[in-house]
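Training component of the fellowship. As part of building independent skills, the fellow (R.M.) carried out the full modelling exercise for a liganded target. The chosen ligand was glutamine. The inputs are recorded below so that the supervisory panel can assess the work.
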Amino acid sequence: MIDLHKLTIVDAGKGLRNKDFTARELTQAYLDQISVKNGEINAYLEVYDDALSQADEVDKKGFHSPLSGIPMAIKDNLLFKGKHATSGSKILAGYVAPYDATVIKKLKEAGAVLIGRTNMDEFAMGSSTENSAFGVTKNPLDTRRVPGGSSGGSVAAVAMDGALASLGSDTGGSIREPASFCGLVGLKPTYGSVSRHGLMAMGSSLDVIGPITKTITDSEIIFNTISGLDSFDSTTHDLKNKNPKSPKVLGVPYHILENGGIKEEVLSNFKESVEKLKSLGYEIRDIKLPNISYSLAVYYILMPAEVSSNLARFDGVKYGLHIDGKDLLGDYLKTRGQGFGKEVRRRILIGTYVLSAGYHDAYYNKAIMLRQKIAEDFTKAFSEVDAIITPTTPGPAFKIGERVNDPLAMYLEDIFTVPANIVGIPAISIPSGFVEEDGVSLPLGLQIVAPHDCEDRLFEIGKKFETK
Ligand code: GLN
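Fellow's submitted model of the complex:
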C-alpha cells in the first residue's frame, strides 16, 4: 500500500526507481482516491481516460527525470492537445485544444502522468472557485469551506490525495491563496520565467503558471522543469540568476499589517513565523513600501482592462459556444451574455470603461504610473533586504457562500498577493501553522517575496522554515 498522503515527488521518484511500485500502480492509487473523493470535492472537471496508458508508456521508457511517472493535475485553462479545456466557462463548452501549452509539452517530455483537468473560477477570476460554471470546489480539509481560488481545483486535487502535484496560474494570487487555504506550497514564479504559450490569457502582463506541491523541494523540481526561454512567448527569458546569493536579511512591511482586515490569529501566527526565522539566523528589518496600499486599486483597473481585451476573442464564432441571434450583433450578445458568468461580465464592463476614450487618462494611465511607483518601492526595499515576508492572506479559508454577494470582500482577499504580480517578482506561499475555527484546524500561509529571478532565495528560506 502506498501512503499517498505522505508521499512527495522525491519519495515517489525513489519508489519508482527502486521498483517498489510502477507508474501504473502509482497512477491507479490516485485514480482510486479520485473515485472516492471527487464526487464530494469536485476538484476534477475531467479525469483523462488515457492516464493509465500515459503511465504504461513511462514504465516502458524508464525514469529519466525527477517528474517521470509522477501523477499531476492541470488547471482547466492550460491546453493539452486533443483534450477539452474550458477555463471553467460555459463559453468554451466543447472546445478541444489544438496544441500543447509549452508547460504541458515540458511535463510530457519529463514523463509526468497528466491525470486530468481541474476546476477553477471562470477564466481565473475569483478567490474561491465559486465562480466556476461547473459548480463549486470544496476544501478537502473542511468541506463547508472554499479551497481558495482561482486554482481551487488544482489545490484541492493535491489536498485530497487525488494528485501528487499540480499546475495552477496566478494573476493576483490564484496559486498562493488556495495553497495557503489547503496547507500546501504554491509558487508564483517571476513573470516571464515560465512560458504562457497555451495558457488562456486573463491579464497578460500579470499571468504566470506555477506549481502546487506538498514541499518546497517538489516546487523547485517542477519550476526547474517548466521554466525557461520559449520562442512562442516573447516575454520569456532564461533564468538570469546565475550567481545565487544566500539570503540573510528579511524585510517586513509592518505598516501594511496595521491596516484593518487582518485576523488577529493571522497576525499572531505571522509573529511566530518571524520568531522562527530569527531563530534560524535571519535578520528581520522593518521596511516601508509607501505606495503598496494602491496595489489592489491598480490591480482592479489593469487586470479588467486586460481581461476586456483578452476575452474579446470569445465571439461565438472562433471558439466553443455559439448561440444564434437575429444578426451578427445578436449572435455576439446572446453568446457572450449567456456564455460568460456574472463575474466575468462585471470585469469586461469595468475593463471596457477604464479603457474608453473619456476615462483612459483618469484610470488606466494613472494605474500604469502607479504600477511603476510600486515597482520602485520594491527595488528600493530590495537594496536593503534579500526577501520580504508577509502573511499570504488576511484570514484562513472562509465558508462557501460567505462572500459571493460581496465582490469587494472577495477582492480584499488578494491584498498581500497582488503586489508581486504588479511588479512581476516571484513569491511563494508555504504552510505556517494552523488556526482553530468551528473546531477545525485551518491552515495558514507565510508569503515570501524576492527580486526578479531570485526563486532560489524563496526555496532556500522555505526549506529552512519547513524543516524547523
Ligand atoms: N483573486 C484574484 C482575482 O480575482 C486573482 C485571480 C488570479 O490570480 N487568477 O482576480
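The panel noted the following from the submitted structure. The chain has one domain: 1-468. The radius of gyration is 21 Å.
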